[in-house]
Amino acid sequence: MLLLFTALLTGALGYMAARSTPSRYVAEGLLLFDNQQPAIPELNQYVPSNSAPPNQRIRTEADVLRSRQLAEDVVERTPVLPEVTEKPSFLGTLRQEVTGAVANLITEIREAIGMPADGAETDSRDPVIDPKHIQLEELQQRLDIRTTDNSNVVGIRFTSTSPVIAANVVNTLMDRYIALDIDAKQRSTEQANRWLSERLAVLREEVEAADSKIQAFRRETGLLETSIGAVSTVQLTEDQSRVAVARQELSRAQAALDAATRPGGRGATTEALASPVVQALRAREAEVVQRAATLGAGLGARHPDRRAVDAELRDLRAQIDSETGKIITALRRDVDAARSRLEASQAALNTSRTAARGGAEATVTLTQLTRDAESRRAVYQAFLARLEQTRLSAAQFPIARVVSPATVPFRATGPSAGVIGAFSAIAGFLFVAALLVLRNLGRNTVNSPRDLALITGVQNVGSLPTLPGGRRRGMPNLVLERGDSDIAETLRALRINLQSVGRGGPASTVLVTSPSAGDGKTTLAVALARLCAADGMKVLLLETDMRRPRIAATIGAPRSRGSIESVLTGKADLRDAVHVDSRSGLHCLFSDQSAAHPQQLIDSDAFADMLDRARNEYQLVVLDSPPIMRVADAVLLSAYSDVILFAVGWERTSTDMLAEAIRRLPEDARARTATVLTRVRPGRMDPLSYYAGYARSGPPPAPRLPAPST
């Protein structure tokens, strides 16, 4: 029920909030930023351009679109806040009322403690809020600039309660952005033109002065120049080239001769190998060598065939040596010719050096003057080209263009009120469910008879519910008013199951205790005793919890003349001190809290004698003891009891406390211990089996509970 109520409440609140909120419309336009730069490279140095990486450039322009200067330009041309003239929403009115109430409360507190109110000091100094400033702030808050990696398209979104204004703001923003970019480029172009014109005038004068200086120097020195330099310099260069070529030829010829005359190298030179005659002789030599090898394998050295082959081989090798000698002679002639050419070229080079040495200093000076003039002329030509190119209007190179203008949206953005209500209901449901789950996990309490049996290791004999109505309609009264109810049947089954827990015979003494206070042990003891008495048994209920007695208040009995303390101290007889419940016939011996040390009374011979007498006179004796985790009374009473019945609160008693409570009992008492799960919420247990009664008459039965496990 709690989850359902929470879901309905949050769903209704979400639906009301959505209905009271004005509809909002989103208009979107797209700008494409071109990476292509102007076709004039020099123009990029003076006209504003962006050479940053594409992604960085797009993010930079997105920041420009969010700038305050552009927002001010848009606000001056189109309205931004239509809702200032509309009826305020429910949430807006509520926010204003809450803000006003808080401000009034702060003012009253200041006055109460003697502090002056804020208004008394600042009324004369409060600035007047400019409506344009409000629109500017709203524009920057509702504007959404979206960029995507690896894309040059930028999305521009604006949210407003008016669809027309939403589209107008987006389109105006894109138009003004492009217009301001073009204006900035035009101003930069004009500034570049002025600077280039001034610089060109200075450079022209410098070029003319450099040319005049070169002409004057030529007239003074009489240097001759060709298209490739001075005559002496050109001749010297050519002679140096000839000497280098002659040296290379001499080196090549000498290397070939050395290779041919090297011991063991005859016939192996490049020229010999390239000679057709030598190649033919080498081929015949190879054939004869192969034939000699074949004959040598089967014939002796004096055989005529073998001698003929050896003679032929010697003849071929002599011919090869003869041809190689001719080649070596030719190589010597080539070396001599190359050396002669080198000597002639060297002589010509010496002559050129002598001729060029006289004009070297003048040539160096002329070269420096020429280089200076050329560098100045190059700078002048570059600036002249830039001036001509920057005269083109930079407006023909806009940084971006509109690829998708914003249209008036016809559908409000966001989910409908019904969807918001549904999501609110689901969120509320899940939130409360999560809180309940976390509460259960954090408690680490007993949640089922199965957990109870696993933790304690003893038998569970039943589960009892929690009932509405307080003490007037509690369990002790219900078992009398509705003897055929589920609870009564469960208690009867519990009484039967206790017989299997005892020392082998009928359980005549039952100790009812619990790990801690509030687990329902007194209610269980009174209800069990009353039911057994109402069913015809002679039952005595002993209130051994002498520190916090509750039995008299539970059954609504007046104060008795005697008490368990008076019986144990010998001041009263058991028969005189017993109170008889008029509704069930149950005999009760209450406590008056007069004992200073209840444990001494429980551990006395008088208590043992009283209990022996009670066993002889009654069929069943039920002892209501204190919680075992508070005092040791229950441990002492366990020695007198046939059965120890633990009342464990459902989702209340922690597992650690329960395990410790069982551990504190003596080992022989644990074998006589059983558990009862109390205060169970109906419908939360595993409905495997029920004791629902058999009678059909009477009022409707109580919520069904599972039968005790065996």
TrEMBL record:
CDD domains: BY-kinase (cd05387)
Gene3D superfamilies with a match to the protein in the record: P-loop containing nucleotide triphosphate hydrolases
Keyword line: ATP-binding, Kinase, Membrane, Nucleotide-binding, Signal, Transferase, Transmembrane, Transmembrane helix, Tyrosine-protein kinase
EC numbers on record: 2.7.10.2
Catalysed reaction, written as an equation: L-tyrosyl-[protein] + ATP = O-phospho-L-tyrosyl-[protein] + ADP + H(+)
Top-level EC class: transferase
Cellular component aspect of the GO annotation: plasma membrane
Pfam entry (one): AAA_31
Family per similarity comment: Belongs to the CpsD/CapB family.
PANTHER family referenced in this protein's UniProt entry, alphabetically: FERRIC ENTEROBACTIN TRANSPORT PROTEIN FEPE, TYROSINE-PROTEIN KINASE
Record's protein name: non-specific protein-tyrosine kinase
Species annotation: Muricoccus pecuniae
